[in-house]
Design brief:
261 residues, alpha+beta
């Protein structure tokens, strides 16, 4: 009898547990079917959708490269640049302008002038610079005596060389094509104008190899040496004359003071 009673109790307990589990399952189903819950689930973006909408890393890197990509060197004077080695286009990108130019045999006369003016360290500084670099044939316009005289006159040489440098910017040929002039380290402005499929610089030289990159500069190799204009030279002479007159007036004033004393 006792065994039968125990079996009956176990059976009742099992039935109760089964009914409780069924009721819980029914409640879960009701929660899932609740309209408010369903609406939230439909509106919330899935992880897959968010990943699809977000730009990929590859796409972002590709866009950044396109935006910051430098133009490739171009023009007839590019043929004089070595195809490989430190003086090549690829080799020059690793070095600052002064060093890069010294490794390029197409710019050896310019390097001699920069060295004579003690400007190598300046061109190797942080920059950035835009440099109009006369190729070796550009100096053929000078006689040997004229070139020697220029190289020996540090002030005149510095004035000429700094007319070829723009500080604070690395301007591509595309940038320059949208400009009328730029201010050089010399202090004077040089003009920029279209000339066929290239650019005319200060009315004196054309760009023969554009967009050569160094570690701190964009270099445009030109076919002539830029020279200070007559107006700039006259202005400089006038300033020197004014300084001389002021010195003379000062000396005369001192002499008169001494006589009065």
């Amino acid at each position: 009898m006792k065994n039968r009673k125990n079996i009956s109790k176990i059976a009742v307990l099992g039935a109760t547990v089964a009914l409780t589990a069924a009721a819980c399952g029914s409640d879960d189903a009701d929660v899932t079917d609740d309209p408010a819950t369903t609406e939230v689930s439909e509106e919330a973006p899935t992880t897959d959708a968010m990943e699809e909408d977000a730009p990929t890393t590859d796409a972002m890197e590709e866009g950044a490269m396109e935006e910051g990509e430098a133009l490739a060197p171009s023009g007839p004077l590019c043929e004089a640049v070595p195809a490989d080695g430190e003086g090549s286009f690829d080799g020059m990108t690793d070095d600052p302008a002064g060093t890069a130019a010294s490794n390029n045999p197409a710019l050896s006369t310019l390097v001699a002038a920069v060295t004579a003016a003690d400007l190598v360290d300046t061109l190797n500084s942080d920059g950035p610079f835009t440099i109009f670099a006369p190729a070796n044939p550009a100096f053929d316009a000078f006689s040997e005596e004229e070139l020697d005289a220029l190289l020996a006159d540090t002030d005149a040489l510095t004035s000429v060389l700094t007319l070829h440098v723009v500080a604070g910017q690395q301007l591509s040929s595309a940038d320059l094509a949208g400009m009328d002039s730029v201010t050089t380290v010399n202090g004077a402005d040089i003009t920029i104008a279209p000339e066929g499929d290239t650019l005319l610089i200060n009315g004196q030289a054309t760009v023969g190899c554009a967009d050569v990159q160094t570690a701190n500069a964009t270099v445009h190799i030109i076919d002539a040496v830029l020279m200070p204009t007559d107006d700039a030279a006259m202005e400089e002479d006038a300033m020197e004359e004014d300084d001389a007159m002021e010195e003379e007036d000062g000396a005369e004033g001192e002499a008169e003071t001494e006589e009065d004393g």
